[in-house]
UniProtKB/TrEMBL annotation:
Name this polypeptide is given: Proline--tRNA ligase
Its EC number(s): 6.1.1.15
Tree of life domain: Bacteria
Known partners and oligomeric status: Homodimer.
Transmembrane segments: none
Family classification: Belongs to the class-II aminoacyl-tRNA synthetase family. ProS type 1 subfamily.
Matches recorded under InterPro entries: aa-tRNA-synt_IIb (IPR002314), aa-tRNA-synth_II (IPR006195), aa-tRNA-synth_II/BPL/LPL (IPR045864), Anticodon-bd (IPR004154), Anticodon-bd_dom_sf (IPR036621), Pro-tRNA-ligase_IIa (IPR002316), Pro-tRNA-synth_IIa_bac-type (IPR004500), Pro-tRNA-Synthase_IIa_type1 (IPR023717)
Catalytic activity annotation: tRNA(Pro) + L-proline + ATP = L-prolyl-tRNA(Pro) + AMP + diphosphate
One Gene Ontology term of the molecular function aspect: proline-tRNA ligase activity
Signal peptide: none
Domain notes: Consists of three domains: the N-terminal catalytic domain, the editing domain and the C-terminal anticodon-binding domain.
Function comment: Catalyzes the attachment of proline to tRNA(Pro) in a two-step reaction: proline is first activated by ATP to form Pro-AMP and then transferred to the acceptor end of tRNA(Pro). As ProRS can inadvertently accommodate and process non-cognate amino acids such as alanine and cysteine, to avoid such errors it has two additional distinct editing activities against alanine. One activity is designated as 'pretransfer' editing and involves the tRNA(Pro)-independent hydrolysis of activated Ala-AMP.
Keywords: Aminoacyl-tRNA synthetase, ATP-binding, Cytoplasm, Ligase, Nucleotide-binding, Protein biosynthesis
Amino acid sequence: MRYTNCFIPTLKETPSDAEVVSHQLMLRAGMIRKLAAGIYNYLPLGLRSIRKVETIVREEMDRAGAIELLMPSVQPAELWQESTRWEQYGKELLRFKDRKDAEFCLGPTHEEVVTDIVRREVKSYRQMPFNLYQIQTKFRDEIRPRFGLMRGREFIMKDAYSFDVDSSASDLSYDKMYQAYRRIFQRCGLRFRAVEADTGSIGGSSSHEFMVLADSGEDAIVSCTQCEYAANVEKAEARPAPAEHAEPRPLEKVETPAKRSVEEVTAFLGIPSSALVKTLLVVADGTPVAALVRGDHDLNEIKLKHLLGCETLEMANEEMVTRVTGAPVGFAGPVGLNIKIVADLAVQGMKNFVTGANAGDLHLKNVTIGRDVTPTQYADIRNVVHGDPCPRCEAGHLELWRGIEVGHVFKLGTKYSEALRATYLDADGKEQTIFMGCYGIGISRTVAACIEQNHDADGIIFPIPIAPFHCIVSAVNTKDAEVMAACESLYRDLGAAGVEVLFDDRDERPGIKFKDADLIGIPLRLVVGSKNLADGKVELKTRRTGEVELLPLADAVEKIR
Ligand code: ATP
Ligand code: MG
Ligand code: MG
Ligand code: MG
């Protein structure tokens, strides 16, 4: 494609309302534009990357034997009432009425609709197993749509649903999807982990999330250095309590004298000094809420925001703690314990609580799960620490990562088939309930997650499989007829060799062209300028490494294809 025929409205400045890198870069690279909160236009460049992900997903779903269909995004209330999710789903479900006052919603997911199709058509065990999937627009009225395509209200999802005669057959369908998902994210060129996950509100017996590793991820996950074990921290198996902690000890409030040394503090708390620790002040919506500590792994700030019910959260350093609280800072404890305190006090509506600074007897010792903190609270603050022994294999240790959820597979069991009475007759003519699984991939989120993982100060660094184009041919001097002729032949021959080429034929300064090429993240750049061309050479630059190589013009196509 010729740049002059394209619609790539790049921006020099970072838009002020974009908080995360992928959102900033997708706006700057002219990939998306906002229409309303959480609702985006996919501009041509953005659409090309989205289509790349769709194609990989479609190929792998087909390979796994799933069958594509397309269901409506407008769904009647009756189906949702049958599954009881009309009441349960809450405000994320966007509801409306038609002219006859009949109630509808915009589909956030399609368990009800697909189960309705199947209950009408499937009568016999002979018709199973099968798996139906679609690639379609979903709508979820998220409380805080933000981060561009990462958490939109309207977004593109691939959703698949498996139907089996019993639980063990359903397990096989689940494994097929699990393997297909691994291939999909490998083919996308992403670094990811498949982690054990909570089944949440969808219900069902077991589930895995596919997490793209990126520092900006909302989820904390652990994976073992030796075995396959990986889990969302919400679900991670607690490390075994040390023997001497087996009997819960009485909860103690602890005086916090000024300026204890790290060694004193850790000895006092009975934790390794590596679990330490830095005192920080949490300022929620502009009000100091609490000071707490931070170990060598990150707090999940997003979860903390959720716990505190605030929009903005800042972490201050020790000096700020002292400035705001007027108290010297010197005490520290393990992360989980302090977040627990913050969470508890937030629940009690006590917003001006300070811990970590020496403002009184505000530390707790011997916190016991189930007694002092509910398992749900604990799930959010679980103190899984980088370097802990693996709960499964004992040989490895846990590594802590931040992850972006791009895919999710669930065993649903009979939750929906029972509610909607999707049954079949078995070999003995007995009526049985169908076993289901559901499998989602956030197509649009995957592109954003890819950018969160692959970028630098100059812009996006697309892996080839998701890149909108593989190669950009930049003409340095558009006035030079030989340069333009060489570009034209490269453009034509690369295209004929199956390389997707963007030909920057704009009458712009090279600096502008190079900046745009870096920004939109095309993996390879061929620069054709008068000087090199006089020696029969062109320049090839690899976006990721920055490596530059002079090649004979005649070799360029062979080198790139
Ligand atoms: P999250 O935890 O991020 O809210 P979810 O668990 O609610 O996601 P699922 O119901 O598992 O999402 O949906 C399947 C996939 O759809 C997710 O793994 C994610 O990739 C994608 N997805 C979900 N919500 C959004 C959203 N608001 N914007 C973009 N993609 C989304
Ligand atoms: Mg959600
Ligand atoms: Mg989730
Ligand atoms: Mg999920």
